Amino acid sequence: MNKQNFVGVDTHKDTLACYKQGVFKEFKTTQKGFQDALHWAGKAKWAVEGAYCFGRPFSAFLIKNGVDVYEVNPLLTKTWRGALAVSNPKNDYGDAKVISLFAETSNLQKVSLETIKLKEKITARESLIKQKTEITNSLKMLFLTRGETLSFKKFTTKKAIKWLDNNGDMIVKIKVKVLKEVLLGIEEIEEEIKKSLPKKAEKLKQLKGVSDITAAIIYTETKGKLYTAAKLASYAGVSPVEKSSGRTTRHRNNKAGNRQLNSVFYRLSIMQMRFDEKGKAYFEKKLSEGKSKRHARKCLSRQLVNLVFKLLVD
Q1: Is the distance from CB of 259 to CB of 237 less than 8 angstroms?
Q2: What gap in Å lies between CA 145 and CA 143, rounded to an integer?
Q3: 171 touches 148 (CB < 8 A)
């Protein structure tokens, strides 16, 4: 097996399930819980599943305290559990144990504090985007219930903001005041994301349709999970799943995987088939082979996964 130098961690929203050298213990995801976990494990390397998700605050705490932290792909944990026959029932103890036992055998990537900070900025932007949507929807509903017809459809343009700002209604003024603050926050955080974009992520902008934000999302969501292009496609939910019976072989959409990445590759495939010469040519080639537009677009998404993988590992 291995020297068991790793502490295996299965992270959750409220708890950290930790395993080291035959001992299993759970800690709360609080500052005190983080300190207790570090004190319990002593000087060791940490293999954390979900280091950029639920385990992000804990990973940042460990790195700041001079500890090496490595990202564990959940798909790896599943494979390791099958190797030890720790599959039924699935529990935190089994996951933490196999992570600790097998971490040494895999080429895991170190968790980067810079990537954690970039992920935090992306999460903050998503929260602001959600607030913007809620405010604009509430304004639309307000004018709709009043039976008022507006000369604009989009509430975030300069023309719309100016008109709403000059509206004498108190409710509208309050909502617009908050909306302007949210829009300013989105603008500022997008500028920060652009400044802190790593060189590898910058390379992704070579592809048509990849902006700074898209590049940052792809980079952070694939960090520590780049093994092969096929595995990346499976992780992003781009590759189809076989659904066969007898002599009939069928495939269906992959509804698992990282849905954020899946959404990114969907949008990229639309951009490529419309505005990129090579992407459009590939799409039309698939159509000429008798494939439907939907199937052809999915084939294009799979090719985009290969391009993204090549750019990130080059």
Answers
A1: yes
A2: 6
A3: no
CA 170 to chain centre: 39
Contact 308, 214 (CB under 8 A): no
CB-based contacts of 226-230 (< 8 A; 24+ apart in sequence) = 226/309, 226/312, 226/313, 227/73, 228/309, 229/305, 229/306, 229/309, 229/310
CA angle, residues 29, 32, 34, in degrees to nearest 5: 55
**211-215 LR contacts (CB < 8 Å, sep 24+):** 213/122, 213/125, 214/264, 214/267, 214/268
Output the CA angle 23-27-31, nearest 5 degrees: 140
Could you give the count of Cα atoms lying within 13 Å of 218 in the half-sphere of its Cβ?
32
Residue whose pair of structure tokens reads 């998700």 in the numeric block: 53
Please say if the pLDDT value at position 9 is more than 90.
yes
Question: How many angstroms separate the CA atoms of 1 and 156, rounded?
Answer: 58
Residue 14 and residue 66: Cα distance in Å, rounded? 24
Burial of 162 (0-12, 13-18, 19+ CB in 10 A): exposed
pLDDT digits (tens, 9 = 90+) for 217-274: 999 998 877 778 998 998 888 987 666 666 666 666 777 778 899 999 999 999 999 9
> Which of 217, 198, 201, 194 has the alpha carbon at shortest distance from 264?
217
Please give the Cα distance from 56 to 111 (Å, whole number). 9
Q: Is the domain defined by 6-111 classed in CATH 3.30.420.40?
A: yes
Angle between helix 259-275 and 293-313 (nearest 10): 110
Which residue in 67, 74, 69, 62 sits closest to 12, CA to CA? 74
